[in-house]
């Protein structure tokens, strides 16, 4: 896990032009304490930021086919494996409790070498899937069969896309050196 240095792409600072301010407001969840630094970095490319909102909104929204716990386990593990403390910390602070995740799960999710036996079998499958995708960009037949016994084909596609989306988010967080939110969790 790496500690990020000074931002390579500084988040936009207020005051924002009207159109950009409206975009940032749309991007920010109503209960967020402030406009997230990640969103202020993404908004440097407003067209890309605006077009990514429906996809990110679907993955985290009520219409997603995956349970909150499943989504968060995948997101947190992807971010941990990528060393993206920014996004991991935001998700842990914002969603871990609602997803029913506690310290036992935290340790297993954060560490690539932790004993996964402390997790429920379903949770272990998600971590194994993320690790396989991270390490090989593929899932072997045995793991796929186990995943298929728990999730439907539409959900499996969503799991794969969710993992890929948070890989992309992790890349932005790490390479742009997005500054950590003061309220977010730390490793």
Low-confidence stretches: none
Tell me the Rg in angstroms. Answer: 17 Å
Number of strands: 0
Distance between the termini: 8 Å
By secondary-structure content and strand pairing, the structural class works out as: mainly alpha
Coarse morphology: globular
**What composes the largest sheet?**
none
Name the helix and strand elements from N-terminus to C-terminus, one letter apiece. HHHHHHHHH
Quote the average pLDDT: 94
Précis, in short:
Helices cover 60% and strands 0% of the residues. By secondary structure, the protein is mainly alpha-helical.
Structure description:
This protein has helices at 18-27, 37-42, 46-60, 68-82, 85-95, 103-110, 121-136, 141-148, 153-175. By secondary structure, it is mainly alpha-helical. The mean pLDDT is 94. The radius of gyration is 17 Å and the shape is globular. The chain is 60% helix and 0% strand. It is built from nine helices and no strands. The longest helix has 23 residues, at 153-175.
């Amino acid at each position: 896990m790496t500690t990020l240095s000074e931002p390579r792409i500084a988040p936009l600072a207020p005051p924002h032009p009207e159109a950009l301010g409206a975009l940032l407001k749309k991007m920010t969840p109503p209960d967020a304490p402030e406009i997230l630094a990640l969103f202020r970095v993404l908004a440097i490319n407003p067209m890309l930021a605006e077009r990514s909102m429906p996809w990110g909104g679907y993955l985290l929204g009520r219409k997603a086919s995956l349970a909150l716990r499943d989504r968060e386990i995948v997101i947190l593990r992807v971010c941990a494996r990528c060393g993206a403390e920014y996004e991991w910390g935001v998700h842990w602070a914002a969603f871990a409790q609602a997803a029913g995740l506690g310290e036992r799960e935290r340790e297993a999710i954060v560490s690539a070498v932790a004993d996964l036996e402390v997790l429920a079998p379903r949770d272990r499958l998600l971590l194994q899937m993320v690790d396989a995708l991270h390490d090989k960009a593929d899932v072997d037949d045995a793991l796929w069969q186990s995943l298929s016994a728990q999730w439907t084909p539409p959900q499996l596609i969503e799991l794969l896309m969710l993992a890929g989306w948070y890989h992309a988010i992790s890349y932005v967080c790490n390479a742009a050196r997005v500054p950590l939110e003061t309220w977010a969790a730390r490793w």
